[in-house]
Every structure is written in structure tokens, then in C-alpha cells.
Write a structure and sequence with these properties.
heterodimer, A: about 350 residues, mainly alpha, MetI-like fold, 3-stranded antiparallel sheet, two-stranded antiparallel sheet, 5 strands, about 70% helix, about 5% strand, globular, B: about 625 residues, alpha/beta, 6-stranded mixed sheet, about 25% strand
Chain lengths: ~350, ~625
């Protein structure tokens, strides 16, 4: 188990290094000049050149990459100056000339746009995304499994067909359409009854009471975000359940005299969960990467919106930082899911 | 003495009485009656055997007793199942409220299913699945249930009960799984135990130990057993009374002795005759249609006595004498071998080190050498996991052997590459076990047969290939019209014949039949075996016939090779292996086969009769 996790982490680091290279070159293939976007059209060439030099954008691409990797690596070599010490907050290990080998937390640089530390920006925006993604997936998983089981048990009845049609609808409606419909209906026309607004944050800074938690604000975006995973989980659960219900061990369980409920919940469900876990984890990971449309329409402060706007402004450190964060999230979720598979099905061995 | 045994049974009251039971299934082509107004009864302490082929309604009958017929599509449309319940007195199981029916399921009537591999829930431990039943029906504490489970495991002779208790089904062997199933069924001391083909999926030696267990169970319990099987040999060993089912009807019902010594119904005669025998070497196997005629749907239209009047006659008319066989054998081994296998090894890595280098191997085929002569059928027999399938596939290089030599007409096939290998594949073909899985459902039968010809460039034009395919279909007793049909329209036996036709399309000289009749009913198996023999004559073929069934192997083979743990235990002429087995393993294997001789039935009945008073 420990061996498995360590090996997967090692693979994960390789994946991360790959991701850094791909995104780095892709990003530099984008047209446009980040410096022009920072300074505006009218800035004089002198200033632009100075900024470019300061950000290291005048160097050849491979040098830029090497410097970036050096900044990221926890074990790296820097010029030993007080300003560097402040910038990287490193712990020097030993000196090599006027350079020094250091131990530090990965340095993600500062945003071109706001000059804020990228790590701070990510942490600020990640919280909203995490809560939104978790709320959406919890909603989708619970109801997806429930409806999936109901549809399987009532196979070929009106209820089954009705649920399938709903789920097809849920899969096919684009998220921005669903988001606008939900926001308008429940946040505007029916807001007197629901008491919900179109937009709102989880934490609201109140001038009198300070930072306040507003849980109700998460309901509409989470619901909207959950529609599609719910529909897919339902269909997967239905087909997987139908297959499991024809298995011999279900007949054995019934022949023991177990009640229908117990047969389903104890003997069928656990066997039917595997494809659902795959879907849930995949969705959770991609929701954690941010959901741009939903965040945009509900004006929810999250990773998706931040990343998209950073791409717009060619804000390289932010794009790079959030891509890495997303990659890490995917890797961790995948490891957790493999462990979960093994926990649910004893036939699965972790290799 | 046998008569006495039967009489003493009659005084005992029946515990179960089925009256006019009818079960119908709704299918695309209308309503099918799976069980057609059958009536029978079961006495206390009696073992009733139900014999029939797939689709005869024997499993549906047993599922109806517990009201477990899958619904939809199945439905019990009429009848009564009167059961003498400990808890509720005399009740009609079909009218019992659901909660009471659940008390009876697993409590008073318990069931054991065919395939222990799939009948246990893979995600719970064996112990958990048995304690669950005990807690459900007896409401005892977990500790008490666990104690009783361990006792049960001990009783069904599971080794190390406490370890099996903690094991998951995939961690124990098939025979052990079936013992766990039996323990589960016995958990609440049921008055009726229904066993639906409990030994079909197991190896003969394991089957023998499970049947032994059944025989012991009935001695010290007042349990009635309904034992369902397609294997008459098994029935002969275990049942007091036999019920033969055909297409939803009971065609014959009587004591085991009567059914075996004097079968009345032509179908029963056919079943008894078409089973490959261990004692006589027959030229062709009698088939059910030698005894009766049927219409297109399989309904019996008449009794045919044209060929054989009785089972005995069917056997006497076509057995081969010893001199004939000796002569044939002598001639066979005087030829140059068609295929020589020398020191063949096929290993599979099981554990790899950090760099992907194998640390340990499964020796599936371990240093095997033998010859096959032209026109020979070499029977390859062994229990599951002995390496027989791997050996077959290694010879065709479907699995790459690790070391050794395979000489086909003198050329070492292991060195062949590219076109030469393809030419070899044309000469050496294989027929697989499962005719359902080995035909592409989206290709018409004709396309399936023509495809390999196109791949190998056999015959010049599509027209010629089509004509050859049709000729082949006719050779395997199908018709030209079947060319455009799809596999799902055919029965298992017909599909296997299609597979055979496809194999023959390339005009091979050497064919490996890998358990090619294992998934077929006995009567269909007899037809396919006869067909294989005819084809061998007609096209000068040489076979390796792989099977776990020694009776089948004995019928079809000239020589038999017994395999165990990847090694050859023994290789000899078929008759010699049976009459004079050399290795211990072969002896054990032969001893375990249920023979279904009258002599054995007499002995079994007697043994049960003597054992009875001791149990009471």
C-alpha cells in the first residue's frame, strides 16, 4: 500500500514535469505580448524593454524554461543575495562560489498583472472552487446513485423511461444555458420564494459583522454544476446495477431469504459502484479545475475564472501555477480512487 | 433388495407436492411455456434427481419452488406447491405472503447453485455470507453465528475453517467455494435442499468429493434433496428416484434402478445411449434422434425404432472389437509423425522486480514431449489449471512458448516468421470451447466462414469461396440457406458446427479441439463428436482433442495423454489408460468418474439403505 502510494507519487512528479514543459511551450506559442498588455499601447519602448528584462522575457526560450524550473524545484541554485533570500524565502544548504544550493518551497513567481504572489492568488481562489465542486459532486453522486438504482429496479416502466429522458436532457443542455436558466428562475423570478440571489460568495465581508459565511449562496451554482454529472452517474449506475442484478450471487442472496432492500443495498450496490467511482472522480477532478461558465454567470470567485482571465492577459505565472495545481489535484484524486477501488472490491490489488 | 428400499420409501409422508405447475416466459417471439403443467412429490429424506438438457425446464422448476423465477420475463401462471412447513404447517408456497416466503427461503428450503465461482458475492468474505443467513433466520448474535459457521465449515470438510471464514471467494478454489455454498445452504437445517447442477462446473475429482459430501449429509439428516443435473452418471450415484424432463414436461419418473435398467420413454433411452461410455469403444455414438422423431420446435412426434430398439442394442451393434483396435493402433504408430513436440516449455511470469524482469514463473507447460501421427486423434485430458489449454495454444503459437521445439512435418514452427508462419496457421487450426463467444455476432455465418479464406488467399474468386463455404455448411449438416443468417439465430450445437465449418474452410490438416463439446448438452455433444469423426475420415485430419471429460476423450481418441501440473503424467492408447493406468494421478482421475452402471446403482442404493437406520 505504502509502496503503491510512493510509486504513484513518483509517477505523478514525472507527469508534472511533462505538464510544465507542454504548457510552457504551448503558452509561448500564443500570439500577443504580455508586456504590451501590462503597460498599454502608449508606453515607450524603453520602459517595455526594462520590464521585459526584469521579467526575463528577453532571454531565449530554453533559458526561460531552465530558470522557471529552477524557481519551481524545491532543491535549487540561486545567486546568494539578500533580495533573492527575501524573494524565495529559502534555506541555504551550502555555497558554490557566489551561488548557493538552497531548500525552499516551490516559487511560482508573481502575477504579471497584479504583482501578487501566484501562490497567494491560487489559495485565495481555490477555496471557493473546492466548496463548489464538493457540493456539486455530493449532490450529483447522491441523487445520481439513488435515481440510477430506482431506474434499474423499475426497468422498462414509465418511471425508468422518464428518468432516462431527464438524464439525456441533463447531459445535453450546455452548462451556460442551464446556468442562465437556473439563475434567472430561482435567483430572480422566484427569488421571493427561494430567498436566493443570482450571485453571491460563500464568504461575504460585512462592514459590521466582519467575514460571514453565506451557505445559501452555494445552492444555485452547485445545483447547476451538478446537473450533468448527476445525469451521467445516473445512467452509469442504472446500467451497472442492471448488470449486477443478473449475477448469480444476487440470486443466492435472494435464495437466502434476504429482503429486497437488503439484497440491493448490501449485495448489489457495492458490486455496482466501480464505474460510478470512475465517473465521480473524473468529474470531481475536472470540477476542481474550475468551472468557468458557472463561476462567470454566478459571479463565483474561483479557479476557473481566474485561469481564463490569466490566459486572456497572457499572465504566464498564473496560468502555469493553476495548471500545475490542477495537475496535482488530478494526480492525488487518481491515487485516492485506486485505493478506494481496492477498499471496495477485494479482488483489486494495488500494484 | 432394491425393491425393498423402494417400498420403505413409500410409507414416508411427502414433504412437498407440486401440482399442475406451469411457468411461462414472455419472449420476443411470444409466450414460451418453460414448465408445462407438471406434478410430482418429494418424500421426507428422499433424494430426487431431475435430469434434462438445457431448456428442459429443470432449473425453472427448482426456482419456482422458492418463487425465484426471474420476473419479468418469467411468471408462474398456475399450479400449487404444497409444502409442509415447520413454522407455518401445510402451505401453498405460491400463495404465501412475501415475508413468510422469505422466512422459508434459506430457512426451510435452501438452494445450491451451479457455478460456485459466480454464486458467492465477490466483495464479502465467505464467513460473512454464511453468518448473514444464520443471523437473518435465527436472530442469534454475531458471535454465536460465527461459532456455528465455523462448525458448518468443519462439517463440510473445509480445511482450516477459521481461515476460510476470513477469505474472499476469489482466494479459495472452486471446490472450496461450493463447500461454502453447501455450508450456507445447511446453515438453518433446511428440510429441503435444492441443488441445481452443483458439480457441473467442477473437476471430476472435486465432483467426486462433493458427491461424497452429499451422500454423507443425507445419512445424518432428515433432509430431502432435489438434485438437478444433466449428467446421468451423477444422478445414478446420488438419487433414489429420477425424474426425466424434456421441454417442460416430465417424460419419465421412477426409481433410479428402473430408469437405468429399463427406460420406457424414447428420450430417456436416447439420453442413456448417447453418453460416451468408458467400457466399450463405439464407432459412432447413438443420438437421441435414433430413438425418437421430433418436429421443428423439438416436440416429440413419434418413436423411431428404425435403428435401435433399446439402449443395449444401440451399443451392441456398433462397438469395436479389441482386435480391430489393435490393428488400427499398430498401423497408426508405424507412420512418420505429423507433429513432434520436444521439451516444450511455456512459462508465465507472475512476479516482476522493479525493472520489469520476472522473478518467478507459473510453469504452465513444463518440459513436454510427444508425437502425433497422421490421422490420429490424441486426447489431452487433465483438470482445470493443468496446462492443457496452454499446451494447445502453444503448439499453434497463439501463446509464444518459452523454450523447446515443435516440428510440423519436420520444420520447426517456432522459428517461422511472417508468411511462413501464416502458411502454418492455415494448416493448423483450432476449434474453441464456447461457440457463443467465438462467432462474431455482427457477421453472417457465411461471412464468418469466408473471412479466413480471404485472409489466407484460399481459392481464387469470391464465388468459389462462397461455394466452398456452402459445401462446408452442408458437410456439417447445416444448409445453404444458413449462409446469410446471423449466429444468434442458431442453437449452441449449430453454432459449434458453424465454428467447425469455419475451421475447415482453410483445408487444414491438423486441428486442435479445445473443450469443443464442453458447453453442449449430452445429446448435442454426441452429434458433434460423431461429426468430428466423420470429418476426420473425409478430409484426412489429425486432431488433438482437449477435454476434462474422460468419457468423451475415451470415445474420440486413439491415444490419450494425461496432464497434471504442466507435465505429462501418462501417454498411452485409450483402452490401456482405462484398463491399466500407470500413474497414481490417472488412477485417481478414472476412479472419480461417475459411471452410471447398473452395478454402481445397485451398490449405491444398497449402501444408502444400510446407512439409513444408523442416522435415525
Amino acid at each position: 500500500m505504502l509502496k503503491f502510494v510512493l510509486r504513484r507519487i513518483a509517477y505523478g512528479i514525472l507527469v508534472l514535469i511533462g505538464v510544465i514543459h507542454v504548457v510552457f511551450f504551448l503558452f509561448h506559442a500564443l500570439p500577443g505580448d504580455p508586456v504590451a498588455l501590462m503597460t498599454g499601447q502608449k508606453a515607450d519602448p524603453e520602459t517595455k524593454l526594462a520590464i521585459r528584462r526584469e521579467l526575463g522575457l528577453d532571454l531565449p526560450l530554453y533559458q526561460q524554461l531552465a530558470l522557471y524550473l529552477n524557481d519551481l524545484s524545491p532543491l535549487s541554485i540561486h545567486e546568494n543575495t539578500p533580495s533573492n533570500q527575501k524573494k524565495y524565502e529559502y534555506y541555504p544548504l551550502f555555497k558554490i562560489g557566489n551561488h548557493v544550493l538552497v531548500l525552499k518551497t516551490p516559487y511560482l513567481r508573481r502575477s504579471f498583472q497584479s504583482n501578487k504572489k501566484v501562490s497567494e492568488i491560487l489559495i485565495e481562489n481555490l477555496e471557493g472552487t473546492i466548496w463548489l465542486a464538493l457540493a456539486a459532486m455530493m449532490f450529483a453522486t447522491f441523487w445520481g446513485i439513488t435515481f440510477g438504482i430506482i431506474a434499474a429496479l423499475k426497468q422498462n416502466t414509465f418511471l425508468d423511461h422518464f428518468l432516462i429522458i431527464l438524464s439525456v436532457l441533463g447531459i445535453s443542455v450546455p452548462s451556460f444555458v442551464a446556468a442562465i436558466l437556473v439563475a434567472m428562475t430561482f435567483g430572480y423570478y422566484l427569488s421571493d420564494y427561494t430567498g436566493l440571489g443570482i450571485t453571491g460568495q460563500l464568504w461575504v465581508d460585512d462592514p459590521i459583522y466582519g467575514r460571514e459565511l453565506h451557505l445559501e449562496n452555494i445552492i444555485l451554482p452547485a445545483f447547476t454544476l451538478g446537473i450533468r454529472p448527476l445525469a451521467i452517474i445516473m445512467q452509469l449506475m442504472r446500467s451497472s446495477m442492471l448488470e449486477v442484478l443478473t449475477q448469480d450471487y444476487i440470486r443466492t442472496a435472494r435464495a437466502k431469504g434476504l429482503s429486497g432492500f437488503k439484497v440491493i443495498v448490501k449485495h448489489a450496490l457495492k458490486n455496482a459502484l466501480n464505474p460510478v467511482i470512475t465517473a465521480v472522480s473524473g468529474w470531481l477532478a475536472s470540477l476542481l479545475a474550475g468551472a468557468f461558465f458557472i463561476e462567470y454567470i454566478f459571479n463565483w470567485k474561483g479557479l476557473g475564472m481566474k485561469t481564463i482571465s490569466a490566459v486572456q492577459f497572457l499572465d504566464f505565472p498564473v496560468v502555469m501555477g493553476s495548471t500545475l495545481l490542477i495537475a496535482i489535484i488530478f494526480i492525488i484524486i487518481n491515487i485516492l480512487v485506486d485505493i478506494l477501488y481496492a477498499a471496495i472490491d477485494p479482488r483489486v490489488r494495488l500494484h | 433388495m432394491v425393491q425393498e428400499a423402494t417400498e420403505s420409501c413409500e410409507k414416508i409422508p411427502s414433504i412437498l407436492e407440486v401440482k399442475q405447475l406451469r411457468v411461462e416466459f414472455t419472449t420476443d417471439s411470444g409466450i414460451v411455456r418453460a414448465v408445462n403443467d407438471i406434478s410430482f412429490s418429494l418424500k421426507k429424506g428422499e433424494t430426487l434427481g431431475i435430469v434434462g438438457e438445457s431448456g428442459s425446464g429443470k432449473s425453472v422448476t427448482s426456482l419456482s419452488l422458492l418463487n425465484l423465477v426471474p420476473n419479468p420475463p418469467g411468471r408462474i401462471t398456475q399450479g400449487e406447491i404444497l409444502f409442509h412447513s415447520r413454522e407455518y404447517g401445510n402451505v401453498d408456497l405460491l400463495k404465501l405472503p412475501r415475508d413468510r416466503m422469505r422466512r422459508i427461503r434459506g430457512g426451510e428450503i435452501a438452494m445450491i447453485f451451479q457455478d460456485p465461482m459466480s454464486s458467492l458475492n465477490p466483495v464479502y468474505t465467505c464467513g460473512n455470507q454464511v453468518t448473514e443467513t444464520i443471523i437473518l433466520h435465527e436472530g442469534v448474535s454475531y458471535q454465536e453465528a460465527k461459532k456455528r459457521t465455523l462448525q458448518l465449515f468443519d462439517k463440510v470438510k473445509l480445511p482450516r475453517p477459521s481461515q476460510i471464514f476470513k477469505s474472499y471467494p476469489h482466494q479459495i478454489s472452486g471446490g472450496q467455494k461450493q463447500r461454502v455454498m453447501i455450508a450456507m445452504a445447511l446453515a438453518c437445517k433446511p428440510s429441503i435442499l435444492i441443488a441445481d447442477e452443483p458439480t457441473t462446473a467442477l473437476d471430476v475429482t472435486v465432483q467426486a468429493t462433493i458427491l461424497e459430501l452429499f451422500n454423507e449429509l443425507r445419512q445424518d439428516k432428515d433432509t430431502s434433496i432435489i438434485f438437478i443435473t444433466h449428467d446421468l452418471g451423477v444422478i445414478a450415484e446420488i438419487a433414489d428416484r429420477v425424474m426425466v424432463m424434456y421441454r417442460g414436461n416430465i417424460v419419465e419418473n421412477g426409481t433410479t434402478w428402473d430408469i437405468f435398467s429399463n427406460p420406457q420413454h424414447p428420450y430417456t433411452k436416447g439420453l442413456l445411449a448417447c453418453r460416451p461410455r468408458l467400457d466399450l469403444k463405439l464407432r459412432t455414438l447413438p443420438v437421441v434422434s435414433d430413438f425418437m422423431t421430433t418436429d421443428k420446435e423439438g416436440n416429440i412426434t413419434g418413436i423411431s425404432e428404425a435403428r435401435f430398439k433399446s439402449v443395449g442394442q444401440a451399443l451392441m451393434l456398433n462397438y469395436q472389437s479389441e482386435e480391430e483396435l489393435r490393428e488400427k493402433h499398430k498401423q497408426l504408430i508405424s507412420q512418420t509423425p505429423l507433429l513432434e513436440v520436444k521439451n516444450l516449455k511455456t512459462y508465465f511470469p507472475i512476479d516482476k522486480n522493479l525493472f520489469g524482469k520476472p522473478k518467478d514463473y507459473v510453469r504452465a507447460v513444463d518440459d513436454v514431449s510427444f508425437n502425433i501421427y497422421p490421422g490420429e486423434t490424441l486426447g489431452l485430458v487433465g483438470e482445470s489449471g493443468c496446462g492443457k489449454t496452454t499446451l494447445g495454444r502453444s503448439i499453434l503459437r497463439l501463446i509464444e512458448p518459452t523454450a523447446g521445439e515443435i516440428l510440423f512435418e519436420g520444420t520447426n514452427t517456432l522459428h517461422l516468421k511472417g508468411n511462413a508462419l501464416r502458411r502454418l496457421r492455415k494448416d493448423m487450426q483450432i476449434i474453441f470451447q464456447d461457440p457463443y463467444a467465438s462467432l462474431n455476432p455482427r457477421m453472417s455465418v457465411g461471412e464468418s466462414i469466408v473471412e479466413p479464406m480471404k485472409v489466407h488467399g484460399v481459392l481464387e474468386s469470391d464465388k468459389a469461396r462462397r461455394d466452398w463455404a456452402i459445401e462446408l455448411l452442408e458437410t456439417v449438416n447445416l444448409s445453404a440457406q444458413h449462409y446469410y443468417r446471423y449466429p444468434h439465430e442458431f442453437s449452441g450445437g449449430q453454432r459449434q458446427r458453424i465454428c467447425i465449418a469455419r475451421t475447415l474452410a482453410l483445408k487444414p490438416r491438423f486441428i486442435i479441439c479445445d473443450e469443443s463439446t464442453a458447453s453442449l448438452d449430452v445429446s448435442v455433444q454426441a452429434q458433434v463428436l460423431n461429426l468430428l469423426n466423420q470429418l476426420k475420415e473425409k478430409y484426412n485430419l489429425t486432431y488433438i482433442f482437449i477435454s476434462h471429460d474422460l468419457a468423451v476423450i475415451k470415445f474420440i481418441s486413439d491415444r490419450i495423454m494425461v496432464m497434471n501440473h504442466g507435465k505429462i503424467e501418462e501417454i498411452s492408447f485409450a483402452e490401456d489408460i482405462y484398463t491399466n493406468p500407470q500413474s497414481e494421478y490417472t488412477k485417481k482421475l478414472i476412479g472419480a468418474i461417475p459411471k452410471g452402471d447398473l452395478e454402481d446403482i445397485r451398490r449405491a442404493t444398497l449402501k444408502r439403505k444400510l446407512a439409513k437406520p444408523k442416522g435415525k
